[in-house]
Amino acid sequence: MTETTYPDRIKPITPSAERLDAQRRRAKLAHAVRRASIYILAVAIAIWILLPIWLIASMAFSTPADVRAFPKQILPSPFSTQTLEFFLNTQGIINSTINSLVVAVLALVISTLLAVPAGYAIARYLFPGRDAIRLGILSVRAFPVVVLAVPLAVVFIRLGMFDKVHSLAMMHAALTLPTTILVVASVFASVPYELEEAALIFGCTRAQAFWRIVLPLALPGIAAAAILTFVLSWNEVFAAILLTISNRTLPAQILYTLDKSGDPFKFAGGFFMLVPSLIFIFFIRRYLFNMWGQINK
Amino acid sequence: MAEIVIERAVKRFGKFVAIDDVSLTVHDQEFVVLLGPSGCGKTTLLRAIAGLGMLDDGRIVIDGRDVTYLPPKQRDISMVFQNYAIFPHMTVFDNIAFGLKMRKLAKETIRERVDHAAKLLHIENMLERYPGAMSGGQRQRVAVARAIAYDAKVLLMDEPLSNLDALLRLEMRAELKTLLARLGATTVYVTHDQIEALSMGDRIAVMRAGKILQVDTPTRVYDLPANQFVGSFIGNPPMNFLYGQVRRQDGATKIKIGELLITPPEEMQPPLRAYEGRHIYLGIRAENMEALTQPSPDTLPVTVEVIEPLGSQNLLTAHIEGGMLKISTHPDFPATTGGQIWLRFPVRKIRWIDPDSGEAIVPDLEKVLA
Ligand SMILES: Nc1ncnc2c1ncn2[C@@H]1O[C@H](COP(=O)(O)OP(=O)(O)O)[C@@H](O)[C@H]1O
Ligand SMILES: [Mg+2]
To answer: Are residues A109 and A217 in the same domain?
Structure first.
């Protein structure tokens, strides 16, 4: 083997093997630490969210006596549906649950049907007053429900819309519209305009291009906006109390009877409030992730 | 028959004029390249032909039909976009079939046409895949397959190769050229790459700042640029421009560069006479000068500053009065850095340029024909 000889000034600089090893070990360790801390953080966040849910769920399936006991058990034992049954048999709960579902679905439909065209227009068209409208939409958020609800109740009474499920749904839709419009607009803006133009070239009208190309690609974002509406409507209590009397929604009904009832009722109610949102998100969750990876590029 | 006629097209964005009174005719089955630096309006012009941006003035006629105000779907065109614009939520098959489905063709016909187009572009085994899982080169093939499967009379391409790496671009260039020649569609192809334009086009339309400067065959655009811009934009290295004084001597118009006197050919005498006593530019390509190692009559001595061996040729840089000169020589030519060589200028290879307008000075005959 012959040693290559270099003139002094171009001698190759190779770090010694040990130094390389030490460097590599350090890099590996740093990498491991970074990964571990991400996991720890994720687990902490998950516990933070899941612990109360677990507590509520396990209480809901314990006997009323166990619910009142302290310290609480980790697992419901004996397992019992007594608490839930008691809650469900309470006057007005079933009815208000149905009301809540109807209101939430109606609000979702109204809000989505309005937000999709509005969001598309804001994302794609340069029309006079676009920025003013965008600001106007956002400024609706500045009015708290507290301020809106009482005058609205008066108006609703005058129009004969008071204490109706669909009136409350409209109210909830109005509450979420500013957010949903802006969310949907940003989703539409993220769909490359070139894709729409390609559709036009290959034989689509504008409406067809929207229906076949833009809408499917925007679906995840639209679903997210829909969830937002559903959950907000499901949880909203202030407008619900003010605008309805006989057609109460679930949160309004629970709040109404809260001070007259004990812990078992509260835990069962909490659990019952929680479940529909969880189920809804479970079914719609795949739209929350982009199904086809990154759009374009 | 699908001829494209663009008449006095104007397109403005606010006050900015992106297309400035452009006229161009693309003959049936012809392959015309729009070539120009970035931002000169190539895409805007192509989109106007496609119907993706209305003109502010002028007309576009495709196949004898005025399409100026028609939407894209009524123009019988298809297009390859610069970023491909493949639909990410459809398989490769559905992407290629998209236009055919919109035309409501029979299922078997669609299947056949998609298979055919996919075979031409060698993506027949990827038809069930989604574009998200494909490389840039593969997506590019899908975009081309979609465009040719649509089988329109006019094919528009906007820098279809610009997003590929150099090696792939070279490969696709040759492949596209053969493919398009076989299809016989009238094609308008946009690029900012002059090599691509020279190697692919039947004719090249050179653009700058919203105007078409010259429309000619690749050889003519290369050898006989209409002006200084075209000469320096096309070719690598760009055309050399030597500053020379026009004077009258021995009953003829001659041009003096350094100590060298060049006698323009017969037909250039009348137009150059008007320049006597002034200066003009002589445009000449690096490979069109004759380099000699010995002094000889009618040669210009220059000092070689840099020698760049490029394999098939050596590129020499020489300093002359008022500028640089690039000379391409055979690799065996014995030049040395700092050494002197002598250059001969074949007058037939010289382009005579007006120094004020930058336009080529042409004999009357050519002016009439152009
Ligand atoms: N939609 C638009 N709005 C405003 N200016 C535009 C628009 N499209 C293109 N331009 C301008 O027009 C000029 C030509 O653009 P383009 O045709 O895309 O150039 P290129 O030759 O690079 O394809 C550029 O200066 C560009 O900034
Ligand atoms: Mg462009």
So the answer is: yes
| Cα A214 to Cα A259: distance, rounded to the nearest angstrom | 50
Sign of the CA dihedral with B9 first, then B15, B17, and B21 last: positive
pLDDT in tens, A126-178: 788 888 888 888 787 777 777 777 888 888 889 888 888 888 899 899 888 88
Point out the domain boundary residue: A28, A63, A90: A90
Contacts of B188 in chain A (CB under 8 A): none
Report the separation in Å between the CA atom of B338 and the middle of ligand 2, taken as the mean of its atom positions: 43
Say whether both A117 and A64 belong to one domain: no
Select the residue of B51, B52, B83 nearest A296 (Cβ to Cβ). Answer: B83
> Containing domain of residue A22, as a range?
1-90
Q: Please give the residue of chain B at the shortest CA–CA distance from A217.
A: B89
pTM of the model as a whole: 0.80
As a whole number of angstroms, the distance between CA A273 and CA A250 comes to: 8
Decide: B42 in ligand 1 pocket, CB within 6 A. Answer: yes
CB pairs under 8 A between A and B: 71
Q: Do A182 and A143 belong to one domain? A: yes
The total number of structural domains in chain A stands at 2
The answer to whether residues A58 and A158 belong to one domain is no
**Phi/psi at B33 (5° precision):** -105, 130
| Domain harbouring A267, CATH code | 1.10.3720.10
Could you give the CA distance from residue B85 to residue B15 in angstroms, rounded to a whole number? 29
Please report the ipTM that was assigned to this predicted complex: 0.85
